[in-house]
């Protein structure tokens, strides 16, 4: 399933996308709120594997490219937790931050999740200190439901504020879309 937004094309990821995905993980600014900006072997054991690291063959992960230019922007996922619930995630190249592309892609996946995939609930989480990502979740229609202390708080600068969880239900999405 290919999704189109005014500025993006989201396509199911392929092995050829792996190099771009890995490059994202090697940008300390991109990884700041996931690993404290550490990359590769520098990632503490308590953080290793606690976040999605696509390599290009994962189901439910879309590669985002600019319409027309086809330049790599990042990736989005709508990872099924159950047949009724999925978790929204995304990671963009730093040079595409602040342009509304994360919100655009996230909203497209939320719409697809409720409109085509049949989910009843979509959630997302980020660090409390990650205000940009919180705003993306809000613009995609999700609302803050709780803040939890993070077991890894000491491993990440600004981690002491914990992790915030957001969600939207199918009913809320329908009401917002009306």
TrEMBL record:
N-acetyltransferase domain segment(s): 8-171
InterPro entries in the cross-refs: Acyl_CoA_acyltransferase (IPR016181), GNAT_dom (IPR000182), N-acetyltransferase (IPR051531)
GO molecular function, one term: acyltransferase activity, transferring groups other than amino-acyl groups
One Pfam family linked to the record: Acetyltransf_3
Gene3D superfamilies on file: 3.40.630.30
Keywords linked to the UniProt accession: Transferase
UniProt entry tagged with the keyword Disulfide bond: no
Designated name of the protein: N-acetyltransferase
Organism: Aestuariivirga litoralis
């Amino acid at each position: 399933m290919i999704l189109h937004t005014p500025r993006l094309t989201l396509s199911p990821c392929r092995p050829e996308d792996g190099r771009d995905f890995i490059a994202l993980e090697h940008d300390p600014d991109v990884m700041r709120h996931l690993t404290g900006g550490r990359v590769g072997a520098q990632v503490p054991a308590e953080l290793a594997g606690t976040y999605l690291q696509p390599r290009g063959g994962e189901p439910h992960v879309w590669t985002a490219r600019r319409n027309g230019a086809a330049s790599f922007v990042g990736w989005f996922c709508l990872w099924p937790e159950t047949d009724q619930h999925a978790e929204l995630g995304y990671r963009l190249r730093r040079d595409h931050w602040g342009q509304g592309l994360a919100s655009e892609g996230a909203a497209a996946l939320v719409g697809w999740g409720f409109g085509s995939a049949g989910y009843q609930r979509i959630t997302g989480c980020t660090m409390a200190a990650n205000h940009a990502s919180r705003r993306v979740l809000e613009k995609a229609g999700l609302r803050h439901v709780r803040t939890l202390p993070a077991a890894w708080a000491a491993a990440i600068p600004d981690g002491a504020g914990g992790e915030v969880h957001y969600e939207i239900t199918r009913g809320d999405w329908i009401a917002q879309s009306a």
